[in-house]
Design goal:
Elements lengths: L10 H9 L4 H10 L4 H7 L5 H13 L3 E5 L6 E5 L1 H4 L2 H14 L2 H4 L5 H11 L10 E6 L9 E6 L6 E3 L9 E5 L1 H8 L5 H6 L3 E5 L1 H5 L1 H4 L14
Parallel strand pairs: 3-6
Antiparallel strand pairs: 1-2, 3-4, 4-5, 6-7
C-alpha cells in the first residue's frame, strides 16, 4: 500500500489510485489522441513541467497502462498504450463528454491557451475540402503577446499537418485574425465561424475558397457535437 492509497479493496478506489493523480487523465487523453513521443506529449500539456510528465509516464508504465518502446532513432523512445491502456479510451471519452455537457460555458472559456488550441486544431484538421496543393494559414491573436500570438498551419496533400510558431517562409493563403476566446469557442463547438464573422470577432483575408470552407476544414474538438446542458 502506498502513502497515497485509499486503503480500500473496491476496484473504483484502486483504479483511482492510478488514474486520479494530477495531470494523469490529461496525459492519457494525449496518448489516446495519438501522441506517442515525449515532445509531442509536451505540446499537448504545455503547462505541465517536463519532470512531472516524465514521472506520470513512469507511473503509467509501472501500472501496465503504457509501454516504453525504443525506436529506430538513437535514444528516441515512444510510449504506446497496452491492452489495459486501450481499455481506458471510452472512460477518457466519457470524461470529455461529461465536461462538454455539464461544465459551465464561461468557466470553460476562462482556460485559454493558444499553444494547446493550435495543437488540437492541427491534430483534428480535415484537409478534404482544401485545395490539392500546399495551403498555409496564419492565425493571429492580437491580444496575445508575441510570439505566442501568431501561428501557422501548413497543410500539404498526403502529409501530416504542420504547426509552426515561427514563420515557415511560405506565402500565406489565408490570414485568420481572432481573439483567443472566440477561436476557442469555435473549436469547442460553442460558436460558429459564420456567427463570429458576422459579429466581427473573426476576420478572414485571402483565399476565398479556404475562407468559405473554414467551418468544414477547421479542426474541431471531438466533443464539439455535444450540446451544453447547463446554461
Amino acid at each position: 500500500m502506498t502513502q497515497a492509497s485509499y486503503g480500500q479493496f473496491c476496484p473504483v478506489a484502486m483504479a483511482a489510485e492510478i488514474l486520479c493523480t494530477r495531470w494523469t487523465v490529461v496525459v492519457l487523453r494525449e496518448l489516446i489522441a495519438g501522441s506517442s513521443r515525449f515532445n509531442d506529449l509536451r505540446r499537448g500539456v504545455p503547462r505541465m513541467s517536463p519532470a512531472l510528465l516524465s514521472q506520470r509516464l513512469k507511473n503509467l508504465e509501472q501500472a501496465g497502462v503504457i509501454s516504453r518502446v525504443k525506436t529506430s532513432e538513437s535514444g528516441v523512445f515512444e510510449y504506446q498504450l497496452t491492452r489495459s491502456g486501450r481499455d481506458l479510451q471510452p472512460i477518457i471519452e466519457s470524461f470529455g463528454i461529461w465536461g462538454q455537457r455539464w461544465v459551465e460555458k464561461q468557466t470553460t472559456l476562462q482556460n485559454l491557451d493558444p499553444q494547446l488550441l493550435m495543437w488540437d486544431m492541427r491534430r483534428n484538421l480535415n484537409p478534404t475540402p482544401m485545395p490539392k496543393r500546399r495551403s498555409t494559414i496564419q492565425f493571429l491573436y492580437p491580444e496575445v503577446p508575441t510570439p505566442r500570438g501568431t501561428w501557422w498551419l501548413i497543410v500539404s496533400p498526403g502529409k501530416d499537418v504542420d504547426l509552426c510558431s515561427v514563420d515557415p517562409g511560405f506565402e500565406v493563403d489565408l490570414y485568420v485574425s481572432s481573439d483567443l476566446k472566440t477561436m476557442t469557442a469555435i473549436w469547442m463547438g460553442l460558436e460558429s465561424v459564420r456567427k463570429a464573422l458576422h459579429s466581427r470577432h473573426v476576420k478572414l483575408v485571402g483565399d476565398r475558397h479556404l475562407a468559405a470552407t473554414m467551418q468544414t476544414w477547421l479542426g474541431l474538438s471531438p466533443f464539439a457535437r455535444e450540446r451544453k446542458i447547463v446554461a
